[in-house]
Amino acid sequence: MQIDHASRRARKLISDLNLTDEELRQIIAAARINLATFDPEYRANVTQLSQELERSRPTIYSWADRALEATVESLRSIRTGRPPKNSNGRRPRRRPERS
Predict the structure, then answer these.
(1) SS3 breakdown of the chain: % helix, strand, coil, rounded to 5?
(2) Residues near 92 by Cβ (< 8 Å), separated by ≥ 6?
(3) What is the pLDDT of residue 91?
């Protein structure tokens, strides 16, 4: 599996999250399996993915299931709508989280 680091967004995420090549391959495999599950126009060859990653097909599916569970949990926890106004009638400014 060839990983493309050309995208600025990809490079930033790789750097920010300190991702290894192995982690990138796992992320890509999980995303492909989930996309193939829900998008009838997309096809993924799980056997080929498992051979490229030297992991079993059940392991690949397990990664995909765990990634999907995390995605769903994250989406469900996102607050929708506008933030409430302060007593002065203004909305608080969003400040980036610091680690």
Answers:
(1) 60, 0, 40
(2) 83, 86
(3) 65
Instruction: At 79, list the tokens.
Output: 């607050």
Residues contacting 86, CB < 8 A, separation 6+: 92
C-alpha span between 34 and 14 (Å, rounded)? 21
**pLDDT in single tens digits along all 99 residues of the chain:** 566 667 888 889 899 999 998 898 899 899 999 999 888 889 888 899 899 899 999 999 999 999 999 989 888 888 777 777 777 766 666 666 665
Nearest partner of 63 among 94, 95, 33, 85, judged by Cα: 33
What are the residue boundaries of the structural domains of the chain, listed by start?
25-75
**How many alpha carbons fall within 13 Å on the CB side of residue 90?**
4
